[in-house]
Design brief:
The protein is of the alpha/beta class and about 220 residues long. The chain has helices at about 55-60, 75-80, 105-110, 150-155, 165-175, 195-205, 215-220, and strands at about 5-15, 25-30, 70-75, 90-95, 115-120, 135, 160-165, 185-190, 210. It binds iron/sulfur cluster. Pathway: Purine metabolism; 7-cyano-7-deazaguanine biosynthesis.
Length: about 220
């Protein structure tokens, strides 16, 4: 049995709304803790791991409603929660899930027939089972002053880049030299802004990349 303990904000089932697996039924595991400091972050309640916010495992097995909270869970305990849902696609997100060694959890899930997808900022080492699909959403020059790691870009199966303006695309270009050529590239307009969306659409057409539109925000699910 693995002795890695994860701090988890919530576990819930929904439709993956972003990137390559958009539209796929999925169980989301949202880890607590992040120090990257993106100003437009829509999960700021995951940033801090405060002792007062510890809850039971049963309590985090439902959407948090953006509450700052967490429960300790081992890989075995998370597997039991996941088995109560129908989806076979597991999205490990945050917060910054690469605060944790994800190998024990993802190896166990793959062995049980699940497909794991990681969503990470690329600013921490990625410790994950080799069968997992890694989505790096590189967070460049954020307030936490963490660099995007070349090793994270090299592990990416997909690069899903948040875009507000042209300089964001220029910054992405500088990172793509580290990526495998087969990695999928998707641009995601920040906060559904019209100008950003238009820029992403034109760039995707010009460069044969994909558009990621945060489908869940348009259809009104978590
Ligand atoms: S890396 Fe993710 S969770 Fe952390 S601040 Fe940025 S958007 Fe928020």
């Amino acid at each position: 049995m693995s002795d890695v303990i994860y701090r988890v904000n919530e576990v819930f089932e929904t439709i993956q709304g972003e990137g390559f697996y958009s539209g796929t039924p999925a169980v989301f595991i949202r880890m607590q803790g992040c120090d990257v400091g993106c100003p437009w972050c829509d999960t700021k309640h995951t940033w801090t791991v405060a002792l007062d916010d510890e809850r039971s495992l049963a309590e985090i097995n439902q959407p948090s409603g953006d509450r700052q909270r967490w429960a300790q869970a081992s890989a075995d305990e998370l597997l039991v929660l996941i088995q109560s849902y129908q989806a076979k696609h597991i999205v490990i997100t945050g917060g910054e899930p690469c605060w944790y060694d994800l190998k024990p959890l993802t190896a166990k899930l793959h062995d049980q027939g699940y497909m794991c997808q990681l969503e990470t900022s690329g600013t921490y080492d990625i410790q994950i089972d080799e069968r997992s699909f890694v989505t790096v959403s590189p967070k460049i020059n954020m307030r936490g002053k963490r660099d995007v790691l070349a090793s994270a870009m090299q592990r990416a199966n997909e690069v899903k880049h948040p875009v507000g303006r042209q300089s964001d695309i220029d910054a992405l270009d500088a990172l793509l030299v580290h990526c495998p050529t087969e990695a999928q590239i998707a641009l995601q307009p920040i906060s559904q802004q019209k100008r950003a969306t238009d820029l992403c659409i034109q760039t995707c057409i010009d460069r044969n990349w994909r558009l990621s539109v945060q489908l869940h925000k348009y259809i009104g699910v978590l």
